[in-house]
Write a structure and sequence with these properties.
Layout (H helix, E strand, L loop, with lengths): L10 E6 L7 H8 L16 E6 L23 E2 L2 E10 L4 H19 L5 H16 L5 E10 L4 E4 L4 H16 L5 E5 L8 H5 L1 H14 L1 H9 L1
Antiparallel strand pairs: 1-6, 1-7, 2-4, 3-4, 4-5, 5-6
Helix pairs in contact: 2-3, 6-7
């Protein structure tokens, strides 16, 4: 879900670190290895692939540019931050199709060898068939948008889906948070109304965290202590 789909839900995060704003050049160096490659229609054996793609429309261009077009985070700048777009490719092999092709191969091997494949051979055969069918499966594409105020350490993700949040948090962490030694902190409902300035006031922040820890004591305590 995201701006591109025309519907918006919101999750908020704070990025906690040393307070220094990374340069655009530094961010681009971290960003480049995780840009999404052009979508391939054959030969992909992964069920799920995530990568950053260029947001469409913020510079007046309403169509995607050619796959070989070079772009970077300067194309994502808007107002006081960066609009990030995550593309998710999902491929799936229908269970009945997998079972059908597996049985055909199973009986073919049995007829040729004169014996029934053993447990390991059956597992290997099933994996082989699934990989072959996966390489022919067409991807289902979805997008998730986020707006990162990189100067103030605020981030808004335009989705509340658990799956979308997990995928975004994982790639954002690998791309930016871990190399920059930043902690991506999700703001749960008791904290979501706090402004960034509130976090600079230790008393306000402490009271808010105390309220959240009472609401979700185990999960939040584990997160804040990690």
């Amino acid at each position: 879900m995201g701006i591109q789909q025309g519907s918006v839900a919101l999750s908020r995060y704070l990025l906690l670190g040393d307070g220094r704003r990374p340069s655009l050049g530094k961010l681009n160096d971290l960003f480049a290895p995780y840009q999404a490659a052009p979508v391939s229609l054959e030969g992909v054996r992964k069920e799920e692939i995530c990568g950053w793609v260029r947001p469409v429309g913020i510079d007046g261009v309403k169509v995607d540019l050619p796959p070989d077009h070079v772009w970077d985070l300067s194309d994502c700048q808007i107002d006081d931050g960066l609009l990030l777009r995550l593309r998710i490719e999902r491929r799936n092999v229908p269970g009945p199709l997998l079972q059908l092709i597996y049985k055909l191969r199973f009986f073919d091997i049995s007829a040729k060898t004169g014996k029934t494949p053993g447990p390991k051979e059956r597992r290997d055969l099933r994996d082989e068939v699934k990989a072959e069918l996966m390489a022919r499966a067409l991807p289902a594409l979805s997008y998730v948008d986020a707006f990162w105020r990189d100067g103030s350490g605020e981030l808004m993700l335009f989705s509340t889906s658990k799956k979308a949040r997990a995928l975004f948090e994982g790639l954002f962490g690998t791309t930016f948070a871990e190399p920059l030694q930043l902690q991506l902190v999700p703001l749960e409902p008791p904290l979501i109304g706090l402004k960034h300035a509130d976090w600079q006031d230790s008393q306000v922040a402490s009271e808010a965290v105390s309220r959240l820890s009472l609401a979700t004591p185990v999960a939040f305590a584990e997160q804040t202590q990690s």
